[in-house]
Known about the structure:
The structure holds two protein chains of two kinds. By secondary structure, chain A is mainly β. Chain A has helices at residues 13-18, 124-131, 209-212, 218-222, 404-410, and strands spanning 24-30, 37-44, 55-64, 72-73, 93-97, 104-108, 117-122, 134-142, 145-152, 165-168, 175-178, 192-195, 200-203, 229-234, 239-245, 250-258, 266-274, 280-288, 291-300, 303-304, 319-320, 324-329, 335-340, 345-350, 358-364, 387-389, 395-399, 418-424, 430-439, 445-451.
Amino acid sequence: MTMRPDPTFHASPKLAMEAPAESFAYTVLLSPDFSKPDALAVIDVKAGSPTYSKIVHTVTMPNKGDEFHHFGWNACSSALSPLAGHAFLERRYLIIPGMRSSRIYIVDTKPDPTQAKIHKIIEPEEIFKKTGYSRPHTIHCGPEGIYVSTLGGSGKDGTDGPPGIFIMDCETFEVLGRWEIDRGPQTKHYDFWWNLPRDYMVSSEWALPPQFENGIVPEDLLSNKYGHRLHFWDLRARRNVQTIDLGANHQMALEVRPAHDPVREHGFVGVVVDTTNLEGSIWTWWREGGKFHIEKTVTIPPEPASKDQLPPLLQGFGAVPPLVTDIDLSMDDKFLYVACWGTGEMRQYDVSDPRKPKLAGSVRIGGIVRRAPHPNGQAFAGGPQMVEISRDGKRVYWTNSLYSTWDDQFYPQGIPGAEVMANASPGGGLELAKDYWVSFPDGYRAHQIRLDGGDCSTDSFCYPSV
Amino acid sequence: MGPADWTPAWLWLAVIASGLYHGINPGMGWPLAVSAGLMQRSSRALVTALGPLAIGHLLAMLLVILPFALLITLVEWQRTIRIGASLLVILFGIYRLIDRRHPRALARIPPTQLVLWSFAVAIAHGAALMLVPIYLGLCREAEADQGHAAANSLIDTSLTMAVLVSIVHAGAMIAAGGCLAWLVYRYLGLKFVSRSWFNLDTVWALSLVLVGAVALALGLES
């Protein structure tokens, strides 16, 4: 409890962009063979600092096999909501779910990020008992506390009942229970986000645990059994109000990125692969006349490749799919970054006209076939994956691992963890920074990145940028 | 005029002051008016949002004060009621000091239902309760003027007073909140929202205790 709102809370996206630049990047590390405990790395990103682009602190967990993936802050700018009437939280704790173990770690980043330490551990049994969900994944801070999306229901393989979202208290971290009152036809889950003043949430679908935990199931993919729908919810009423099917061939609708400015009632979602032609795609959704609409606004073609260049999984196709595994929208809602994990490309789209994205920049690095090195000469295994944008939109950070068992199928030669950064020009254009290269301890892969003071996939706002 | 004649004036001032105090507290809703104005890019939307906020606050006042307006007509029990009401306000203040949790149910109210929101917030935080001792004080003054009138006119007086106190208070509240919202919207900018926001939880709880204690002291004296 503080006397003033946290100085990293901003009323509007514009104020967040004007705030001081980030000093630290938190990145979760996972041990893909579960031989070591997963960890949180704290990386110095202050330009000119002697330890720039180096890990300055590591919080190692006491368990093995958690499989870290996504994580998030206990509180963000959404605390300034005029409806909450109480803005006195601190952006202090990182909520880090173990996607395989269903355990959740709360890491305290005060008094200083270089002294971050475990504050609390929520054991899987508590989550199972109180929510009937498993495999916690995405974290967002919002009106009712901390929202956690899950990928599994109850039971050993997580298929006993649908996955969903549960709520945690943002100060005590007590698991409060399921969020949904009426889930409608929703049976799979992945990402979610919202527009707070407009009072709606959007959620997406990846897969059920048996479809991902031991690797991608090619038969399920080719028979279009992965998620391909988007769900729209009344946020306060906790009801599914509309479900849109993107078409069964659009397999795996993952990251949901609504515009940050709450006046704008649109957003984007990335689809990993179209099973009819291996394309990746970006879809723009918007609300008009009380209904949600969606259309495919970007397609990214596969790149032909000979059989011997491809992992066994892809050899039958003679091509590398782009595999759009993550997207992220800049704070001013102007640029959408699209990670093509298969072809090894980070694309930057100008989405000033949300339904007509224009390719504005691109960086090639890694890739199943291309294997483009970093400009500093280092080999970048895997491809661009989890991407995070600085609040001011000038720096774009990303890592290279997707998910332990899937990494092995698409990149059998292994993916040593790496994190890079590209400088984005205000008018468009993207260039890798030669001096930013984070190498991680042997045997670790790197996944999501969070910036101190908030970033473009953390903070949601209740006031427009005017 | 003796000093006693000034008492009603001071009490009315307290009604207005508590209204201003509630109005400038962001927790009572002025940032919602700013948000409405900015979201629709119109100062009219800002003004329109003030209406439901004022009505919600007014309804909360009436809901809490009206039962006392009826009770107070039980002339024999007036002293007990005054002391009871003072204790109630003190206890609620102490409860707010100890239990700092904010009622989670408030987070379920949709942004479109501002009357309900304003009403619920005023009830939950004891904003209406804060007014009860002041109201009871005013009733006593009015009654003193009137002498011991018939029960009927006593009810009339206490009900009229309840409505009047609620309206004056809610009017002061929305005037203060509305001015602040307008200043932020027009001149100060959104930075003011986070900069001006102080944690009033403790002050608020202490205000309740203080109002209750003063009323209790006066109640015991009489």
